[in-house]
Amino acid sequence: MESPGRSFQTEIIDFLPDATLVIDRGERVIAWNRAMEELTGVPAGEMLGKGDYEYALPFYGQRRPILANLIFMPGAEVEKKYDTVVRTGDTLVVDIFIPDFRPGGAYLWAKASPLYGADGSIIGAIETIRDITDRKRAEHEMAKTTREMAEIIDFLPDATLVIDREGTVIAWNRAMEELTGVPAGNMVGKGDYEYALPFYKERRPMLANLVFMPGEEIEKRYDFVERRGDTLIVDIFIPDFRPGGAYFWAKASPLYDEKGNVTGAIETIRDITDRKRDEQEIVRSRRSLADIISFLPDATLAIDKDGVVITWNRAMEELTGIPAESMIGKGDYEYSLPFYQERRPMLANLVLMPEAELERLYTHVRREGDTLVVDTFIPSLAGRTGRYFWAKASPLYDPQGNVTGAIETIRDITERREMEGRLARSNAELQIAADIQKSFMPDVIPQIRGFDIAARTVMAKEVGGDFFDVIPFEIIALSKGTLGLLVADVSGKGVPAALFMALSRIVVRVNALWHRDPAQAIRDANNIITEDSKSGMFVTLFFGRLSESDRTLTYVNAGHNPPVVIRTQDGTLEELLPTGIALGADANQEYSSRTVAIGTGDVVVMYTDGVTDSMNTQEQFFGEARLHAIIREHVHLSAPQILDRILSELREFSGDMPQFDDITVLVIKGM
Fold this sequence. Notes:
Elements: H1 4-14, E1 19-24, E2 29-32, H2 34-40, H3 57-60, H4 67-70, H5 75-81, E3 86-88, E4 91-98, E5 106-116, E6 122-131, H6 133-154, E7 159-164, E8 169-172, H7 174-180, H8 197-200, H9 207-210, H10 215-221, E9 226-228, E10 231-238, E11 246-256, E12 262-271, H11 273-285, H12 289-294, E13 299-304, E14 309-312, H13 314-320, H14 337-340, H15 347-351, H16 355-361, E15 366-368, E16 371-378, E17 387-397, E18 403-412, H17 414-440, E19 451-458, E20 466-472, E21 482-490, H18 494-514, H19 518-532, E22 539-547, E23 552-558, E24 564-566, E25 573-575, E26 594-597, E27 603-607, H20 609-612, H21 623-633, H22 639-654, E28 663-670
Helix pairs in contact: 18-19
């Protein structure tokens, strides 16, 4: 009969919030609380009294020591079982990932301590287990988000720093390094206003620190601070930042956690010295509008409300060949004569017209607020052939907001238009090239008795260097029931690779039809391609003759990714390794043919390195192991279905990562 003390202890353990078990010195379960029942799905009644590591089965699917058992083992044995075990006195603590505990695995925190008898000897061990999967995954996601945010901050064009709630620097981006000359490695982790030293040569609060301070403290530090919600914005002159001082625009905002608590602040700083000095120069020099316009790079004219020219800048003189003194003061649309050889409204005049009048005269003018913008072709200008122009016109206002005239800027965009035309023609030609290249690929895969065949190429650009071919040999005597199968990858990308691909395909196809031995066909093809390859390009390929009579594939692998053969009877995997070098690399090379049998249900997958070299957003490669696993998993499907599964898994793996290389896959399945 249990003692009252024992029952009381058991009741306490049973209501502990963490999953808990207790084993005796014989490593048999003497306590298995409710939280442990919920975690494992195993009732206490089925576990109490069990030994022989049966309590490990719900976690590991096998009998093995758990942390409580390690209490009875020497330290060396503990280190063999776990990579990292924290010892605190006689207590062991570990974080562990168990991949098979549930779908997707689980992270568990475990703590085990010995139990002592009245004489001080160890009489058992207690282990507490806590499911920390959500926390771990949140930490991983937070680390990923933090990395991504750090990368974003690092590439911001403005100098940016981030401090935590204690005023310690946690981010110091590249633009800040360039502005201050202080590398991030020397500043991240620093506090006590050290980050103010590059600016003020003394330790003092920056704008980011003032985010945490009351309003009156801010007003003491800055003459003028603009508040937008909880964001502070300031323009400031720092006399000692560089010789002659520097003007800065700064913006600081608090950072919040998901509960709305302030965790830090971010400050962005922009050097506006040049802009400020420009403004001061404009004020000091009191230059007139005509002086400013005179030096604008675009041809510019301004008219008053009566349509009389008040400004005709140097760029306009160069464009029209008419000096300013011959045009200023002229009205009656005389300024349109150099452009149109007739008196007619210019865009600046349209600004002064009612909108209804504008719509009646012009249908191709775009409005942007009170500004008019147009692209137009002028057939003749200053004795030159027709030119394309972009023009923009806006009203001029007096201090009371009344329209006093209009200004028009004109830019010659002929070269840009011609470039756009050339680009459009180039794109059209590229599309034609893509259509031609697509026509090289078989629309329908020829089939022979006893085999199911599927193939597809996914180009990274409009045209590329990957290709496959299926060559029927019915036209050759004694070759009925034979197919030539080819998968190839040309070095390089784009149009050069596509042209080299077209050459390689034709040469290989002709030689494949001429020679019965694949090795001889590839040997002769290599010599022809090498002779024609002046640019150092080469092509890796796998070529084989598939025969329905003896169910064999006789092949040559010219430096290509080894195709995979999965045998359904025993599940073995075989790779068809290279039997020679890539074509185009060197002439007079030897190639050997090999033959592999393809039984019923066997699957052969040929592919280019665009499959295995595909990357995801974590910059991990798809790899051969992942490809082999997909083929094994779907070996029972038809060839087209296996092909679809490979490509869909590849798309899912790559996610938002752009496709950098062409992808080609050809699948053969024995029927």
